[in-house]
Write a structure and sequence with these properties.
Helix 2 runs antiparallel to helix 8 and helix 6 packs parallel to helix 7. With about 290 residues, this protein is α/β, with parallel strands linked by helices. Keywords: Methyltransferase, Transferase.
């Protein structure tokens, strides 16, 4: 039997699906269930079970302010599915997913490996509750490789260093920043983080990004920020112009930066409302 994924300071390869788990000294005791956490709230929005009363209460407050919060979470998730298929069909076989969150099937590696069974995926998150689920849920196809790295977006150099042990940086990589940058304040310099992550990637690499916006209902976001701050994580909703700026220097893929359901819609979608407050886009490094 594999060891407990909350065990600190271990690194191991599992036979099934070639999973690598690189861990820090986090343990299950580091999980504070008395305050709301964005990953657990997002899991609740998606109908998952990995949340606690503090998360339920905070998520329900968000729903009262934004009744479409659950649908927005699903629109974001469905964009990830379509974007991953899109870049995989373009020949990309490596994926670096930062801010993985609590796994919800189908996960990114499952989508990528449906297109190419030998696709390699590195998941990265700094949340100990995500680490606790990594071994059980992030199992890939035998031909491919799936790895989990405990790291923080605010230390992009460390992420790149860890990813180099699993991915070939001489070949294109899809960098996935899904529903993540709205937890990065302006003072934390999100553009510097993106630039640091993109700089070592080979030409032909892609950036997949989604981000909440205040443009559809600006009056609610100060209160939503307060709810998330109560758990220690502020939210910085941004405009379409601000989100588009994150793609500076890249070749935007059609249809550009649009609300989630407008990005290459297909028959698999369940959310089609074109006023979902989340902007998305995919761009290629040239």
């Amino acid at each position: 039997m594999p060891g407990d994924p909350s065990e600190p300071n271990t690194a191991r390869r599992l036979a099934a699906g070639r999973i690598d788990v690189t861990e820090s000294a986090f343990t299950a005791g580091d999980i504070d269930t008395s305050v709301p956490h964005p990953a657990r709230m997002y899991d609740w929005f998606l109908g998952g079970k990995d949340s606690y009363p503090a998360d339920w209460a905070a998520a329900e407050e968000v729903v009262q302010l934004m009744p479409g919060a659950k649908e927005t979470a699903w629109a974001n998730r469905e964009f990830m599915h379509r974007a991953v298929r899109f870049v995989a069909n373009r020949g990309v076989r490596q994926f670096l997913d930062i801010g993985t969150g609590i796994p919800t099937e189908p996960n990114l590696h499952q989508i990528a490996q449906e297109v190419a069974a030998d696709a390699s995926v590195v998941y990265t998150d700094n949340d100990p509750i995500v680490l606790r689920h990594a071994e059980a849920l992030l199992r890939g196809r035998p031909e491919g490789r799936t790895a989990y790295v405990q790291a923080d977006l605010r230390d992009p150099e460390s992420i790149v260093a860890h990813a180099r042990t699993h991915l070939d940086f001489d070949q294109p990589i899809a960098l996935s920043l899904i529903a993540l940058l709205h937890y990065v304040t302006d003072e934390q310099h999100p553009q510097r983080i993106i630039d640091t992550l993109l700089a070592p990637l080979a030409p032909g690499s892609h950036l997949l990004l989604s981000h909440v916006t205040h443009e559809f209902n600006p009056g609610i976001w100060e209160r939503i920020d307060e709810i998330y701050r109560s758990g220690g994580t502020p939210v910085r909703a941004r405009s379409r112009t601000e989100v588009a700026a994150f793609f500076t220097g890249l070749d935007m893929c059609d249809p550009g930066v649009v609300v989630g359901p407008k990005w290459r819609p297909d028959r698999t979608m369940r959310i089609r409302d074109e006023e979902m407050p989340v902007y998305v886009g995919v761009a290629r490094k040239v």
